[in-house]
Amino acid sequence: MSGRDEVLAGVRGALGERRRADVAVPRGYLTRLTGPDAASRADVVALFTERVAALGVAVRHVGGDELATAVAAVLWGWEAKRIVVPADLPYGWLADLDGVRALADSTVLDVPALAAVDGVVTGCAAAVAQTGTVVLDGGRAQGRRALTLVPDRHLCVVHADQIVGSVPEAVRRLDPDVPQAWISGPPVATPGDGPPHGPRTLEMLVVED
Known about the structure:
The protein has helices at residues 3-15, 41-54, 67-77, 111-116, 167-173; strands at residues 58-63, 82-85, 101-104, 120-122, 126-128, 133-136, 153-159, 163-164, 181-183, 201-208. The protein is an alpha/beta fold. The N and C termini lie far apart (67 Å).
């Protein structure tokens, strides 16, 4: 036994520490909403909306046939002239744009180019009601991470069936081998920290088909 091993053995003995293999790891944490938060799909969606709004995010519920108009209304409110979108964003989401140029993302758009647009529109991979969080994993209608880090405004479209009650429920839906971004509200800069990492304005549309 080396000197290091002797010292560590002495410390463990003094603390009465058992070997890690002998220590039972509790797994009794909640894996879904229970109690007053557990109920119907409508309740989960309502809780998500409540938590998102509490984080300072503007959120609006729309029907599937209203989505294009709602997206256009948000962009007009931003006075946006040029936005960037993932290359695979459904065309119908932008069908009602007028006077707003939508750029499909590509490698040509570097960081300065992304910083120059008026905002970005994406979907998400999942959303969590308990925390008001949306999760992006680069899948359909989400694009690369830079799209939601660099532009100053982000409009995220969340379908009601993507909303789950708790974090464990969301984790079960996601691929653990794919990089993910979990977003709970817009970033907050404090004095001396420099600019925030991510958009200063985050808005959401919850689509109830």
